[in-house]
Design goal:
With 393 residues, the protein is of the alpha+beta class. The protein is built from nine helices and 20 strands. Helix content is 23%, strand content 26%. Strands 1, 2, 14, 15, 18 and 19 form a six-stranded mixed sheet that branches. Strands 4, 5, 6, 7, 8 and 9 form a six-stranded antiparallel sheet that branches. A six-stranded mixed sheet has the order 11-12-13-16-17-20, with helices on both faces.
Length: 393
């Protein structure tokens, strides 16, 4: 799951004075189904986010909640105690959020956040790199570009920090729109400091454009709330005879319920994915009542930045023969997280299982290999494939 001022997140704790997050990277990015309950039974969506294949999937929620309650009774930090349990558990992608941080995370799933409009990731050597900037946002207006290295935030070095902390520093501890943040950046050996004012931003998860020749490209940046319905609407409104290029490049995931909803634009019912929650296998299905278009030629364009819920959708369309996939191998995030409320109002998100494609393939740590592998001029190749399927291009 990446969204603005967000990154695929590793284990981390949001502390009130310093931390606050978003997806994306995260987001956005992201569940297994919006109908599955959280540990407190209130029905908050699960999230499909990265986890190591070795991450344990037993019920750690009770252990975390117990440790938090005991710490609170002793006058200690419940969040810190919970984070310690998560750290010892081996759940690489487990996380503990204070109430403000979790609220901001959920806002991100709604497509709203206060920040500077950049996505980031931590590289293999521990550095933090900008992966994307939001057009028209503060970072874009200041000339920050994908590939720039982020060295400091308000004078604090960010190398080796969990990306959740980096995102929190970017967003501030509940900082309002108009608040100032100073970034230390590097590009091609040049270092500079850039002062930005945070802004209230919205993300446009789904954009639609016409390709040369009349086919339609639907770009899904993340599966935030409502994105599945927007995909279905775009397919319904596509001209008769037009093919669909579904561009999932750089989609860091999001709500799996939204990915399943998007699948219902192309699949007239049937299996989308199976997944396990604490050893109990469950399944996601396309909704036959959504009025799927099963006839339009469909190509799905993916790359190494296609993650989580986006991989779930890709796997469903590929396994069921509904689409030709084009591009490079996807990232390989196939885990399921569930939020657990803690007694001090903070929230622990813990890995509870992994999902599989309709053919039973595990995505986690493996990714999806496209039907037509291509690393250069992938969009052009995808358009050519679409034309060969009967599209207009």
């Amino acid at each position: 799951m990446s969204g603005p001022d967000r990154c695929p997140r590793p284990r981390g704790v949001h502390r009130g004075a310093t931390l606050t997050l978003v997806f994306v990277s995260v987001l956005a990015t992201a569940a297994v189904t919006g109908s599955l309950p959280r540990a407190d039974g209130r029905g908050t969506p699960l999230h499909a986010r990265p986890a190591s294949a070795e991450a344990p999937t037993g019920d750690r929620g009770q252990d975390v909640a117990r440790a938090a309650a005991e710490a609170l009774a002793d006058g200690k930090s419940a969040s810190a105690a919970a984070a310690e349990v998560v750290s010892r558990s081996g759940d690489r992608w487990g996380a503990v959020y204070d109430p403000s941080a979790f609220e901001q995370f959920e806002d991100a799933l709604d497509g709203r956040y206060t920040g500077v409009g950049l996505w980031a990731r931590r590289t293999g050597d521990g550095r933090v790199e900008v992966t994307r900037v939001q057009p028209g946002g503060p970072a874009a207006r200041a000339g920050i570009e994908a590939g720039d290295r982020l060295r400091t935030i308000d004078g604090r070095a960010v190398d080796q920090r969990p990306v959740t902390e980096v995102v929190s520093l970017l967003r501030g501890d509940g900082a309002a729109a108009g608040s100032r943040v100073v970034l230390g950046l590097e590009r091609a050996g040049r270092d500079w400091a850039q002062s930005l004012r945070r802004a209230l931003l919205t993300t446009e998860a789904v954009t639609v454009s016409e390709l040369p020749g009349g086919d339609v490209m639907i770009k899904v940046a993340a599966f935030t709330k409502g994105s599945g319905a927007r995909v279905r609407s775009a397919v319904r409104e596509a001209p008769e005879g037009a093919g669909i290029l579904l561009d999932l490049r750089g989609n860091t995931g999001g709500l799996v319920a939204e990915a399943a909803s998007a699948a219902s634009a192309f699949l007239d019912g049937g299996l989308v994915a199976t997944y396990d929650v604490r050893g109990s296998q469950r399944a996601l299905y396309a909704d036959p009542a959504r009025g799927a278009d099963t006839a339009k030629p469909l190509v799905v364009l993916v790359d190494g930045g296609t993650m989580s819920a986006a991989e779930l959708l890709t796997g469903a369309l590929q396994d069921r023969g509904r689409a030709v996939t084009v591009g490079s191998r996807t990232f390989g995030k196939g885990s399921v997280q569930m939020p657990t409320d803690l007694p001090d109002g903070s929230v622990a998100e813990l890995t509870v299982g992994h999902y599989r494609t309709p053919a039973g393939h595990s995505v986690d740590g493996k990714g999806i290999t496209p039907d037509v592998p291509v690393t250069e001029r992938a969009k052009e190749r995808a358009e050519t494939v679409l034309s060969g399927l009967g599209g207009r291009s």
